[in-house]
Amino acid sequence: MRPAVEADHDAIARICLLTGASGSDATGLFCDDEAIADVYATPYLHGPGGFALVWDEGDGAVGYVLGTASTRAFQDWFVESWWPSRPPREQQTQGDRWLLPSAKDPDRMLIDAVDAFPAHLHIDLLPQAQGRGAGRSLIEAACALLAERGAPGVHLVAGKDNEGAQAFYPRVGFEPIAQDGGSVTFARRLRQA
């Protein structure tokens, strides 16, 4: 495990794409294959409070955990600066019909419990890195980093149909705090508020 560097950008985008359909390959599901990474992965290399750690087994990143210590600041930056700077995209696929409007939504990342759990993260591992402790190691490192940055808690959202994620997050200290028709929000306390 190591901090991500700019040279990891393409690998992070690729991992996001290859895991972007509830843990499966999202290639071809959106107007272009970079769209999902532009929403859920690469902004964390640039945005306020952002961080990225990669799992590298010697041939480049095969997994990552990334996120931000301040969801509110990151969300503001995302809709005001990041998303408008991306190439214009038009809805062409069914996936675009939720992804593209979601990216423009100024409240997309603001869960009801954002004040108690102001940090958020995303973790994705390619199959060759799964089941060997990489996910747990990345989560623990991310939680330690966020606690050092003063975040009292962290949250993440996982699709209900992503059975692996639904089983994994409780094993690494996250509890479900909310759900809607298609996703579950998990949270973990990092320190006393």
From TrEMBL:
Gene3D superfamilies on file: 3.40.630.30
Alphabetical UniProt keywords: Acyltransferase, Transferase
Family matches, as InterPro entries: Acyl_CoA_acyltransferase, Bact_Acetyltransf, GNAT_dom
Molecular-function GO terms, alphabetical: acyltransferase activity, transferring groups other than amino-acyl groups
Pfam families named in the record: Acetyltransf_1
Superkingdom of origin: Bacteria
Domain N-acetyltransferase: 62-193
The keyword S-adenosyl-L-methionine belongs to this UniProt entry's keyword annotation: no
Official protein name in the record: N-acetyltransferase domain-containing protein
Natural source organism: Demequina activiva
